[in-house]
Design brief:
Blueprint (H helix, E strand, L loop, with lengths): L20 E5 L5 E6 H4 L7 E9 L5 E6 L10 E2 L2 E3 L7 H13 L5 E14 L2 E13 L11 E7 L1 H8 L10 H13 L9
Parallel strand pairs: 3-8
Antiparallel strand pairs: 1-2, 3-6, 4-5, 4-9, 7-8
Length: about 200
Amino acid sequence: MDEEFDSQGVAARTLSADTETLILVDLDDREVGHMSKERCHQGRGILHRAFSLLIFNDAGELLLQQRSAHKRLWPLYWSNSCCSHPRRNESVEAAITRRLCEELGISCPLEFLFKFQYQAQFDADGAEHELCSVYIGQCVQRLRVNQREIHNWCWISQEALQAEMTGIGAARSFTPWFRLEWEQIQREHRSALPTAQ
């Protein structure tokens, strides 16, 4: 499929379908089966493999995205730079490269930080239940944001984000997985975060 962009170079097509097949895993991240994205997120959710990317610029600022209003779970919530799932027969490494290009129109080296498991209920009919691999990267390329996947985006300093996360002048609602991973980064991985160049 050819990619379409508007006059600002913003991508304009939907990339993730409820029918795509995700990878079910156990708590040790061993593959145990496959299921449609839609069914993985029904009820309390079925544990599946996922990833979460945090992209920084050369000023050490983190790229935040506001999720599309069309998302089934947490629409219009602010979240990390990019997150998604590897598809059946796709490695995490291939999936993160694909998704960075599809959502943000960029590529950059990524460093694995940690995995964490969580379950978060959005409403009675839908939830996230993921074993999520967290990666960080630094990029100076111009973003080509897919506006059907992302409603809005911004760069934010790590200090300003931490203040918002702890409730000081909080103006945004954040996704539960982003809150969890940012808390773990602050506890255990702060030295790995990029600083201004």
